[in-house]
Amino acid sequence: MTDKPSQRGTRTGFTTGACSAAAARAAAMGLVDGAVPAEVECLLPNGSRVRFVVHDGHCNAQSAHAMVIKFAGDDPDCTDGAHLTVDLRVLPGLAGEVSFRAGDGVGTVTMPGLGLDVGGPAINAVPRQNIADNLREVAGDLLSAHGVEVTISVPGGQEMAKKTTNARLGILGGISILGTTGIVKPYSTAAWRASVVQGIQVAATLGHDVVALTTGGRTETFAMAALRRERPELPAACFVQMGDFLRYALDEVVAQGITHVVLGVMVGKLTKIAQGETITHANRNVVDTDLVAEIARQIGASEEDCAAISQAETARFGAELMVERGLGDAFHHALAQRAIDTLTAPERYGSAFQLRVLVCDFSGHPVADVVSAPALPRPKPATAGRTGIGHTHHADFDTE
After folding, report:
1. Is the Cβ–Cβ distance between 367 and 329 less than 8 Å?
2. Residues of the chain with pLDDT > 70: what percent?
């Protein structure tokens, strides 16, 4: 059963795609057997099978309806408790066809770059395949003669979507139906990572050849204000909150052939980047305050101050001390340059893109703006938008 208790903080949940597949399977059983079951064992994309409770099941000879309530486990997911609702309709004579429609609360794709048809429902490729697999398992005879139209609805999905990156990706009117394994892990890094990759794929289709990568809401607001003073035409989709996933973001930048990257950062993440960390989560790697002290020494700070910075717990301490000493601008500039030198080293990204680092303080005021050498010419990739929708349903979290 999906509500099996386990230790809080470690409970896994189920994706919108898995819940939709379970509802679709139950509805298909109604078409075949004349009654929608109260429980159903659903095949997940990862090959496992899980039992789901089914609500509001009813059917007739040509249509069926079922709903599964999403359980997100201990993931901070704004779709936790959502009613993933499926209506099936038989398509007479269209043997084997499984088509998809967006019902109330499920978004519609309005921009290219998502790997989905513009104008079609925001239902990712993996959930579509998973739903079709479940339909064929329980309604194979029906599908040998007829097709089935699958309409997925999520009451309240329009409000849920406001807490996602959907609108920026051109998904309007509701949430997306997604998931690559069917399982949601607590604080799902896989989902957030996928949203970063997806955002860059969309940015690559817009014709501006630039993406601004930021670590959270404050740095994005700062970067948007700075860049739009220079280029007011830049759409929101050119700005991607990468969170802690710099490596995945820059790998996708290279894959998409984008040649101008802007990093909007604050001193903590900037220090981690300068020290060579490309996964910058606070729990993954410790800020190297010896590096902060080295930068301070480089710009002429006293040995006493450098010793204090080295013994501190945070990079912020060093930055604020340098501001007090009148060395703030020089410090932030030197740290940003070290980050550029680290990322553009030959063994990392070299000259694949021109890198600009915009640094703000904790009040959002600019403190550094440093640019690398231009990118070297290289072939453009043949395709973009390979993976379909992959954003997370997490409410916006603001790390920096």
Report:
1. yes
2. 88
- Say if residue 338 is in the same domain as residue 240: yes
Task: Quickly count helices (H) and strands (E) in the chain.
Answer: 11, 18
Do 25 and 127 lie in a common domain? yes
**212 and 178 share one domain:** no
pLDDT single digits (tens) 104-142: 999 999 987 777 899 999 999 999 999 999 999 999 999
Between CA 176 and CA 160 the distance in angstroms is 10
Q: Return the bridge partners of 393, or none.
A: none
Q: What pLDDT is attached to residue 354?
A: 97
Amino acid identity of residue 386, one-letter, is R
| Cα–Cα distance measured from residue 335 to residue 273, given in angstroms and rounded to the nearest whole number | 10
Domain presence at residue 386: no
Q: List, for the chain, all residue ranges whose pLDDT scores fall below the cut of 70.
A: 1-10, 75-76, 185-191, 278-285, 379-400
Please give the order of strands across the beta sheet that includes 239-241.
239-241, 211-214, 260-265, 354-360, 366-371
> Which residue range(s) make up the domain with 55?
13-184
Q: Helix H segments across 206-327?
A: 217-230, 246-256, 267-274, 289-298, 303-311, 315-324
In a domain, 41, yes or no: yes
Q: What CA–CA distance (Å, rounded) separates 11 from 339? A: 37
Q: Is 174 found in the same domain as 113?
A: yes
pLDDT in tens, 292-350: 999 999 999 999 999 999 998 889 999 999 999 999 999 999 999 999 999 999 999 99
Q: What confidence score (pLDDT) does residue 394 get? A: 36
> Given the structure tokens 């501006």, which residue do they identify?
208
Is residue 325 packed enough to be buried (19+ CB in 10 Å), middle (13-18) or exposed (0-12)? Answer: middle
Beta strands (DSSP E) in 104-169 are: 105-106, 108-109, 147-153
The span from the CA of 162 to the CA of 139, in Å, is: 36
